[in-house]
Structures are given as C-alpha cells and as structure tokens.
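Thread amino acids onto this structure.
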C-alpha cells in the first residue's frame, strides 16, 4: 500500500496472491491507457494549432446539384442493408493550403482517383455509422446523438493525420442532405436512413506521410428493421487465436483498417456454425466486443445476488459505441433505482463460465447502431458451450428487449428526449 503504484506493479508476481495480481494488472492497463491518451492529446493539440488559421467547414457555402434521373424506390420489404443508395451524396474537399472547400451535394456518383492515391496504399480512411429516422406521427426527420458520431469521427481522422472539422457544421450539412433525399425513408417504425460519413486521404503519392489533401463524403442507404420478424438470438465463438485491438493500438477508432482483418476469423466462426466472433484479449481472456458491436453481460453477484449490467471499460481497445453509451446511460437512470448495479469493468471469459455454472448468468447482448441490441444465446469457449440464459422459446432477454424499446422510442420521437435531434 505504501509503495507507489508503478513500483508495486513491477514486483514479481510470486509475491502476491492471484487476486492482487489481477487488480494490479488492471491498474497498469489503465495507467498505460492514460499515458497514451495524454501523449495523444498533446500531439493532437499541435496538429490542431497548425490548422487553426485555415478556413473551416462552412455550411453556408453549400452548392446543390440535383439529379435529373431520380431513382426508383425499392419496396420496403426488399431493402437490404447497404445495398442501395439515395439519389445524392454530400462531399467536402480539404487541402492543406486551403482548408475545407465549399461543401457540395451532387448526384450519387463514382469517385475518380489516381491509382497512386494514398488511401489505396496506406489505408487513410475513417468512417462513421449513424441513422436518420422519420417520425411516424409528424414526418419530422431526426438524428440520434449525432454530436457523438462527429466527435468520434474527428478522433479517428486525427489519429491518421487526416483533417478535423466542426461537428456542428457537418451535422448541419447532413441535415440538408437528409431533407433532400427524405423520400427514401419510409415513415414506419424500424425503417431508417443509414448514413455513412467517410473521410479519405486523397493525395497522389506513394510516399508515406500526412496526406496533403482529403475528401469527406456522406452516402445514405435506406434500411428496414434489422429483425423484420422479431429478434433472432445469435451464437458466438470466443476468439483467442486472433486479436481485434490492443493497448496503444487503434481499436477505439473507426478506421477501415481495423475491419478487413476481422473477416477471416468471422468466416472461420461461420464455418463452425457461429454468427459472430467474441473477441477476447490477453492471457486473462478479457471479453471485449462482439463482431462490430459492444458487449453487455447481465449477471448476479456471487455473494449479494445483486443484478449487474457489465460492459468492458474504455481502455483504448474498445470502440466507444453511441449505443453502448446510451445503454449505460439508460441503465443508470432506469435500472439502478430498481437495484441494479451498472459497471464498466473487466470481465474474464472464466467469470462468465462460472456465472453460468452457478446459475448467475442472466443474459448477454451486443449493442450497435445497426441492430440496437443483438441477444446472444450461446458462446463456444474452449471445449465448452456456454448457455447465456435465454429460454428455448425466447429470442431475447428482458434487458435487451427493454433497451431496444427505450432507445427506439427516443429515436422515433415517441418519447421526447434530448438525444433525439430534429432536422429543421
Ligand atoms: C461501430 C462499432 C460499434 C458500435 O458503435 P455504435 O456507435 O453504437 O454504432 C462497436 N464496436 C465496433 C468495433 C464498431 O465498429
């Protein structure tokens, strides 16, 4: 207790009990994350100072060129995630000497890029995933916590030396884009317009360095309910032979480069009959995320029997999901008063297996914009098959059901809430 933290953590493991070892390792991890984030903030501040004198993104300069060949709408029941797009796209170019140029809405079209453009060689690409909703009562268009997506996109862009921008300016421009293409959004609950803001480095060079030019664009795809016939619980394969993200890495950023390497493990899991990978980290086999969603576990405390909702802490390896944050916020507001504990903490695969064996595992679900929640039925881990607590006849647990309803009611304006931002 008297030793300074770092010194304590360098003591040999043999002098400490297993429990102490775990606590100290968690502390070291949190410390290294703090170290990285402090260093990172300093670095980012320098980059921002460099750019401060350049013109920012300016919605008042928007130029709109409307399509002369409007697309035929796809019938609601035939909508497939990310397959069809609206009539237009929003683009804003940036150069190191001129800053952000005038934003443009144009007909949806191919990009024309030199084969030597840096995005193709060194993965200068970051993206976002968010949705616009049409309120069934009054046809207003709404976004859900868009400032969170903007902050995250700026963090992703800055990490790969791409320019940052005013989140308010881009939200404003996205609003104009959504209004123009709103005929693509059915005004029925469950339907929405999936928005894909993307930023790429466009400099034509094979030299490895900060791009001198960039393009930020937004495309939009109308989507139907993720579960058209009601929830369908998924089965996971706990994955230890491949690692999605690591301390000091970029797992907390939505960089395209994070996703391609996850496809082979996903195919392997699919071959064995599992829908998604449950990404584990380290010798302790901490649970991190599921596929491209954050993971939530509901369990009862061994001693007190108190119900607890747990998700992994934001230590730099976890994507800061908007849905994750919303689930945590709602749980603190609406479940804690009912006696629940809400925790962002490390949880090992072993802890889940123990909870299951002792009948304390209540439910497990993924959380992300596409599905809101994805209930989990089984997790394959080593030679075991862990049953996550769903009855054979159910596809979702109580908390997953509750969260989906609470969040959807806010998104579609059934419940007025500051998280729902009306496009005017
Ligand atoms: C996008 C994403 C999430 C979910 O984030 P939301 O903002 O809730 O959609 C979670 N994990 C990963 C790895 C992601 O890419």
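Threaded sequence (424 positions):
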């Amino acid at each position: 207790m008297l030793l300074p933290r770092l010194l304590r953590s360098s003591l040999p493991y043999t002098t400490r009990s297993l429990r102490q070892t775990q606590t100290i390792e968690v502390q070291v991890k949190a410390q290294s994350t703090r170290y990285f984030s402090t260093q990172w903030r300093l670095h980012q501040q320098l980059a921002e100072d460099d750019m401060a004198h350049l013109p920012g993104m300016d919605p008042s300069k928007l130029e709109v060129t409307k399509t002369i060949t409007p697309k035929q709408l796809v019938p609601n029941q035939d909508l497939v995630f990310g397959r069809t797009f609206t009539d237009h796209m929003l683009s804003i170019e940036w150069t190191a000497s001129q800053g952000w140029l005038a934003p443009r809405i144009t007909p949806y079209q191919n990009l024309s890029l030199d084969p030597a453009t840096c995005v193709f060689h060194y993965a200068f690409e970051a993206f976002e995933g968010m949705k616009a909703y049409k309120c069934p009562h009054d046809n207003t268009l709404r976004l859900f916590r868009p400032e969170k997506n903007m902050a995250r996109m700026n963090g992703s862009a800055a990490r790969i030396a791409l320019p940052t921008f005013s989140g308010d300016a881009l939200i404003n421009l996205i609003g104009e884009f959504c209004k123009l293409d709103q005929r693509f959004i059915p005004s029925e609950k469950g339907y929405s317009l999936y928005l894909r803001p993307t930023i790429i480095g466009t400099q034509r060079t094979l030299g490895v360095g900060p791009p001198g030019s960039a393009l930020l664009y937004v495309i939009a795809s109308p989507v139907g309910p993720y579960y058209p016939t009601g929830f369908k619980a998924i089965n996971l394969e706990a994955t230890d032979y491949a690692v999605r993200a690591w301390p000091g890495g970029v797992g907390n950023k939505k960089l395209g480069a994070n996703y391609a390497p996850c496809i082979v493990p996903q195919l392997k899991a699919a071959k064995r009959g599992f829908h998604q990978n449950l990404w584990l980290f380290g010798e302790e086999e901490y649970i991190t995320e599921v596929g491209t969603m954050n993971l939530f576990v509901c369990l009862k405390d061994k001693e007190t029997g108190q119900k607890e909702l747990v998700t992994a802490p934001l230590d730099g390896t976890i994507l800061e999901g908007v849905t994750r944050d919303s689930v945590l916020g709602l749980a603190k507001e609406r479940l804690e008063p009912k006696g629940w504990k809400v925790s962002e903490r490390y949880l090992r695969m072993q802890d889940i297996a123990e909870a299951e064996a002792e009948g304390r595992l209540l439910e497990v679900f993924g959380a992300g914009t596409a599905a809101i929640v994805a209930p989990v039925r089984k997790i394959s881990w080593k030679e075991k098959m862990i049953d996550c607590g769903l009855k054979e006849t159910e596809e979702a647990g109580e908390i997953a059901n509750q969260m989906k309803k609470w969040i959807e009611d806010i998104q579609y304006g059934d419940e007025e809430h500051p998280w729902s931002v009306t496009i005017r």
